[in-house]
Amino acid sequence: MGSVGAKEVPELLNAEGRRIDGRRLDELRPISIKIAPLTRADGSAFVEWGENKVMAAVYGPREVHPRHLMETDKAIVQCRYNMAAFSVDERKRPGLDRRSQEISKVITEAFESVIFTEEFPKTSIDIYIEVLQANAGTRCAGLVAASLALADAGIPMADLVPAVAVGKVAGRIALDLKKEEDNFGEADLPMALVPQSGRLVLLQMEGHLNRGELREALDLGVTGCREIYRKMREALRARYEAAGGAEEAEAAA
Ligand code: ADP
């Protein structure tokens, strides 16, 4: 451990090139996905990603509330990202703070660009993201969970939207930062990809990267998103195979 002022800084990268949790620079944290854990919502998904635990629920297309937000030629997308008071070490003040508003806005914009909103004029597609446990990268985990919940709700969209944060840790570009790396690293760059078109629908950056590092970070992030995309598709496939099997068994009985 080194120290900056009074703060103890953990060793973020060891001599073998391993990170604080033993990962290589290009390695994701473990991800597990549960599709449709909720029965009240039209679609839902629960994502455990490292120490993050995120639930997403989708309703719609349904009536617009408040009504003045209604658009005559398309559906509106409304997303609310919320971090539970018990999701972090120090109790977070409950409710919508500026950070939650910002994250809700960028996630809404990402989904507006992939959902076929023109198919459902005068309606609303409502996305709720609840972070139950946070360990950096929650906006990306939220996007992944919401994307799966939208698919589960049968909302037509161009593609799923995998997302991941890339950053700079101990001078090196690293995939999928955890909390200590986010806190003590030099940069944090969350991104979301539409895999079929290769288009980025969310890209934010905190900290400093030079041009070469930014290129490397984008390449690593896109590769990470493609890996997450495979896991998302696998989870959906497994869910519908299981549901199909249950229906067949019911029909045969
Ligand atoms: P993201 O979760 O998308 O990486 P940030 O970079 O803003 O978003 O936050 C990084 C991490 O910092 C969060 O995942 C969470 O673990 C922690 N954090 C964020 N806001 C708070 C807060 N108000 N109180 C305590 N911890 C927080």
Care to describe what's here?
By secondary structure, the chain is of the alpha+beta class. It has a single domain (21-245), classed as GHMP Kinase, N-terminal domain (Ribosomal Protein S5, domain 2). Helix content is 31%, strand content 29%. It has 4 helices and 12 strands; from the N terminus they run ββββββαβαββαβββα. It has helices at residues 98-112, 138-152, 179-184, 211-252; strands at 2-4, 7-9, 31-35, 43-49, 52-62, 76-83, 124-133, 163-169, 172-175, 187-194, 199-203, 206-207. The longest helix has 42 residues, at 211-252. It starts with a strand and ends with a helix. Residues 88, 90, 92, 99, 134-139, 165, 179, 182, 188, 190 line the site of adenosine-5'-diphosphate.
What is the fold's blueprint, element by element?
Blueprint: E1 2-4, E2 7-9, E3 31-35, E4 43-49, E5 52-62, E6 76-83, H1 98-112, E7 124-133, H2 138-152, E8 163-169, E9 172-175, H3 179-184, E10 187-194, E11 199-203, E12 206-207, H4 211-252
Parallel strand pairs: 6-7
Antiparallel strand pairs: 1-2, 3-4, 4-5, 5-7, 8-9, 8-10, 10-11, 10-12
The structure holds adenosine-5'-diphosphate.
